[in-house]
Amino acid sequence: VQLQASGGGLVQAGDSLRLSCVASGRHFSINAVAWYRQIPGKQRELVASIYRGGYINYADSVKGRFTISRDNARNTMYLQMNNLKPGDTAVYYCNAEGTVMQLATSRVQDFNSWGQGTLVTVSS
User: Fold this and answer.
1) Buried b / exposed e across 88-101, counting CB within 10 Å, b at 16+?
2) What pLDDT, on the 0 to 100 scale, is given for residue 100?
3) Beta strands in 51-89, from DSSP E residues, in sequence order
4) What pLDDT was estimated at residue 104?
5) Strands of 2-6's sheet, edge to edge?
6) Burial of 118 (0-12, 13-18, 19+ CB in 10 A)
7) DSSP SS3 for 29
8) Backbone angles phi, psi at 82, to 5 degrees
9) Which pLDDT score, from 0 to 100, does residue 102 have?
10) Residues 97-108: pLDDT tens digits?
11) What is the mean pLDDT of the chain?
12) pLDDT, tens digit, 9 for 90 and up, residues 40-87
């Protein structure tokens, strides 16, 4: 299962951006999705996630400003980012985990895939 992220860019503080991430492949089912971000020289951190059953979790630093969502029919996840701050500047990565069926063997295997990252730059 491959993920393709898009939507990053250069904005000013207070602006909004929406990131998208499309999953592609065959015979897969997604159980959980998440957005992470990484600032150069720092560890990748979880921004928001939707777990199986619909439980949503946000990092404290983005609560009230960011909204994660998913469109199952389009195999797409989104991250709506409002009131952006310079501290939100980072490369944002989407992540999905679930199961995929191998047609040749009919075996169902777990997968955990990452998108390529999209850069968000917020100027003050």
Assistant:
1) bbbbbbbbbbbebe
2) 93
3) 56-58, 66-71, 76-81
4) 87
5) 2-6, 17-24, 76-81, 66-71
6) buried
7) strand
8) -115, 160
9) 87
10) 999 998 888 899
11) 96
12) 899 999 999 999 888 999 999 999 999 999 999 999 999 999 999 999
Q: Are strands 90-102 and 107-114 parallel, antiparallel or unpaired?
A: antiparallel
DSSP summary character for residue 27: S
Q: Is 16 exposed, middle or buried (0-12, 13-18, 19+ CB in 10 A)?
A: exposed
End-to-end CA distance of the chain: 37
SS3 76: strand
Tokens standing for 21? 């991430």
d(C-alpha 68, C-alpha 110), whole Å: 23
Helix (H) or strand (E) holding 50: strand 45-50
Q: How far apart are alpha carbons 56 and 63 in whole angstroms?
A: 11
